[in-house]
Specification:
Layout (H helix, E strand, L loop, with lengths): L8 H15 L3 H30 L9
């Protein structure tokens, strides 16, 4: 398990394509894009946590007041 994780050829191609798109962006477009990307990363993390809790059966019950 000490082997470094590498991207597949398809992922490498996709990354190069993405790099080309980013190079063509204006500063404002790039800043907006980064904020949206960060938001999506946080959403993915939240979804992973939810799915893992559900899969492991450790979800907390909703609190009713």
């Amino acid at each position: 398990m000490n082997q470094p994780i590498e991207l597949s050829l398809e992922q490498q191609f996709s990354l190069k394509s993405f790099e080309t798109q980013v190079e063509r962006m204006s500063r404002e477009q790039a800043q907006h894009f980064l904020v949206k990307l960060y938001e999506q990363m946080m959403m993915r993390e939240t979804m992973y946590k939810h799915f893992l809790k559900h899969q492991w059966g450790i979800e907390t019950a909703p609190q009713f007041e």
